[in-house]
Amino acid sequence: MGSSTVDVTLTALDDETRAAASDAVLDALTGLGGVRAATSDLAATAPSLEISVRGTDASALGLSVTDAVGLIALNTADFPVGSVAIDGADLSVYIDSGQSVATVEDVENLDLGGLPLSAIADVERVNVAPSISTVNAVRTVTISATPVNSDDVGSVGDEVRAAMEGLDLPDGVTWEIGGVTADVDEAFRQLALAMAAAVLLIYVVLVWLFKSLLQPAILMMSIPFAATGAILALWVTGTPVGLPSLVGMLMLIGIVVTNAIVLIDLVNQYRLRGLDLDEALLRGGQNRVRPIIMTAAATIMAMIPPALGLSGQSSFVSGPMAVAVIGGLVASTLITLIIVPVLYRMIEGWKQRRGFQDPASARAESESPRRAAVAS
Questions:
Q1: Who has the most CB within 10 Å: 1, 5, 288, 332?
Q2: Average pLDDT over residues 75-104
Q3: Which residues form a coiled coil (predicted)?
Q4: What CATH number should be reported for the domain holding residue 157?
């Protein structure tokens, strides 16, 4: 990410309004609990000399303002006139006025071809910003808030946004949140798209494998429960919801659906062998409960060290991700073993009562008489 601060960029047409708005925002952000320090780039100034040409005096001497500025520039800085090639090397050529400048008085007494600079210009010592930022040719000022906890930038960004929305700024001032908050928001949007794409692709593949629209929907029901478990685990442990935890939730999508597939696929196989719906669910649950629990337990055990911060310098990334995975697996395992079979029984039972059959049920019924005939 390009920044470690939450930045507020203010835009105003005049310097006074911009400075007043900067002071108000600076005071508001400094008082926030999640902010360690707040700074404004208006405070970052450097001492400079400002030379202002007096047009009337310059005209009286036959000089335009442009001519006067050029003459001053020629006598206060080395002036490039071209380059020469010496011993195969290109060297730049500059004209040096030969006048040394060490004090403000030296600048005022610069010889501009027979007259001192003070004859046509005023010299003033000023403090100016080291750089000037603009948006659509309008000058801006940026207030940067440094979070107390660098891992909790998201909540600090929300805190800053709430403070800005409740702030009464001068008329004509506009603001926007930038810095690391803007980076995180963009990353969140991209990760949300990745999650949506993952869910859609998994559903399409399951529809193709199960030859049914409803059974894959039942399997996908474990995903929101896994997300709920992950968020609850993050809340209980006081872990902020950030990119690492969202990556953990993205991992959960594949893990929890796999557990549900393991169960429902076996139930469908039992139904193909001629077992009725309830018997197939009962035997499927009995035979799959141990593999599902063992898979979840093994994954949870692997995630405990990073969740406890035992993974060294990578803990700030692996810790939230591990907490999310552990919480999601605990919740999704219970859902897979309880809610998914219940939903499967409700939907498949309703289809049987209404006379609807998906391809799996149709094959089960068509093969059941043949199995009975072979057995006899």
A1: 332
A2: 76
A3: none
A4: 3.30.70.1440
**Is residue 340 domain-shared with residue 317, that is, in the same domain?**
yes
Domain boundary among 140, 162, 181: 181
Q: Identify whether 152 is part of a domain.
A: yes
One DSSP character per residue, 292-312 reads HHHHHHHHHHHHHHHHTT-SG
Domain shared by 122 and 137, yes or no: no
Largest Cα–Cα distance of the chain, in whole Å? 126
- With H, G, I as helix, E, B as strand and everything else as coil, classify residue 143: strand
pTM of the model: 0.54
Rounded to whole angstroms, the Cα distance separating 214 from 200 reads 14
- Residues 342 and 224 grouped into a single domain: yes
Structure tokens given for 298 = 């093994």
Contact (Cβ atoms closer than 8 angstroms) between residue 155 and residue 240: yes
CA nearest 9: which of 173, 146, 149, 151? 173
Query: For 22, how many CA atoms within 13 A lie in the half-sphere containing its CB?
Result: 21
Q: Of 34-48, 252-266, 344-358, which one has max mean pLDDT?
A: 252-266
Domain membership of residue 15 as a residue range: 6-45+131-181
- Compute the mean pLDDT over every residue in the chain, rounded to the nearest whole number: 79
pLDDT digits (tens, 9 = 90+) for 273-306: 888 888 888 998 889 888 888 988 898 898 888 8
Spatial contact of 128 and 62, defined as CB atoms under 8 Å apart: no
Does residue 86 belong to any structural domain of this protein?
no
